[in-house]
Specification:
Blueprint (H helix, E strand, L loop, with lengths): L26 H4 L3 H12 L3 H9 L7 H24 L3 E7 L2 E6 H4 L9 E9 L12 E3 L3 E2 L14 E9 L8 E6 L4 E6 L1
Antiparallel strand pairs: 1-2, 2-5, 3-4, 3-6, 6-7, 7-8
Helix pairs in contact: 2-4, 3-4
């Protein structure tokens, strides 16, 4: 940008998370899976504008406008990264067992990427063993709520298949997302695994 030579060639407009490549090859990025991108987006998305400003102020730039510009660019890139990866992987997280069922947070709603009333969720269940093997799935159940009622299905588990696998997807008006899975031990109510 004009007058900000110390910033270099750095903007939001040309930044595309899916097409971004590092200057030096790195095996972690060469083998990036959707779950890796989601994990990174959760971390990148956790930085507030205020935190970005505090970090940029540590650069002691000659031109004070550089800090404002860099905060704007980093916040814009952060938001693009989060939107991209939260669209690739259903951003349902922080699963917990409650009296109403298997509750979760939709990080796209929490982070302000989408409005709460723009999301629908669906899920299905099956009992599985410790290797996550099981027989057929229940029919899909759709809900606008951020809780899956799995209590009726808890009776399906037995000594051979003591865990309940819950496959879930989200729809924000463009069709159902890829699936992700959460595994619950109904006997204790604990969440024992999440697979994306």
């Amino acid at each position: 940008p004009a007058g900000l030579d110390e910033v270099g060639l750095f903007d939001v407009e040309h930044f595309r998370p899916a097409a971004w490549k590092p200057d030096l090859p790195h095996s972690a990025l060469a083998n990036l899976a959707r779950a890796d991108g989601y994990w990174a987006a959760k971390i990148v998305g956790s930085f507030s504008d205020r935190q970005l400003r505090l970090l940029m102020e540590q650069g002691h730039y000659r031109n004070p406008r550089a800090v404002d510009y860099l905060v704007e660019v980093l916040a814009g890139r952060r938001d693009r990264i989060v939107r991209h990866w939260f669209a690739e992987v259903p951003p349902l997280d922080w699963f917990r067992t409650t009296a109403d069922g298997l509750a979760f947070d939709d990080l796209a709603v929490v982070r302000g990427c989408v409005r709460e009333n723009k999301s629908r969720y669906r899920y299905r269940v099956r009992p599985v063993d410790e290797w996550r093997r099981g027989d057929g799935w229940s029919p899909w159940r759709a809900t606008p709520q951020r809780v899956f009622e799995v209590a009726p299905d808890a009776g399906l588990v037995d000594a051979e298949r003591p865990f309940l696998a819950v496959e879930f997807q989200v729809d924000r008006g463009m069709g159902w997302s890829h699936s992700a899975f959460v595994f619950q031990a109904p006997a204790s109510g604990r969440i024992v695994g999440v697979q994306r």
